[in-house]
Amino acid sequence: MMSPEKISSRSYSTGRLTEIIEKREKNADILQKEAPTLFAGFSSLMKEYYTPSALDVKYKELIAIGLSVSRCCVPCLAVHALNAYKAGANREEILDAASIGIEFGGGPAYVVVRENLIEFLNEIEEKNIR
């Protein structure tokens, strides 16, 4: 499975999801140069948390989708929807996880899903990303 830090946009044509992933990669490169300790610390944390343990990566990514929605974090939602799909989650599972996030985040979380997640899932499925 790909960790959140190893997503590469090179295999995707342009779409909103791709734009978010490319911006994330560019900004991560800048942060790594300008604040290497901050970058290394957070990268290490992410690597550990997304290592299979009692929960495999698919379920960790589905949890992250719910949390991304509840916190109204669109870039987080893009990354975790892509990672969940790559880890074997299907569209229905991703939308189900998002619905739990809406429960906790209310109206603003619903807007995040309505305005973003369907578009991200369509892009992932159009490009058959696995």
What is the topological layout?
Blueprint lengths: L15 H19 L1 H14 L7 H14 L3 H13 L4 H36 L4
Helix pairs in contact: 1-2, 3-4, 3-5, 4-5
Describe the structure.
- The chain is mostly helical and 130 residues long.
- The chain is 74% helix and 0% strand.
- It has helices at 16-34, 36-49, 57-70, 74-86, 91-126.
- Helix 3 runs antiparallel to helix 4 and helix 4 packs across helix 5.
- The N and C termini lie close together (10 Å).
- Mean pLDDT is 90; it is low at 1-12.
Task: Classify the secondary structure makeup into a structural class.
Answer: mainly alpha
**Cα shape:** globular
Mean pLDDT across residues: 90
- As residue ranges, the low-confidence spans are 1-12
Q: Can you count the beta strands?
A: 0
Taken as a percent bin, the fraction of beta residues is under 5%
The major pleated sheet works out as: none
Number of discrete helical segments: 5
What's the alpha carbon Rg, rounded to whole Å? 14 Å
Q: What gap, in angstroms, lies between the N and C termini? A: 10 Å
Helix content: over 70%
What is the helix/strand order? Answer: HHHHH
Oligomer: single chain
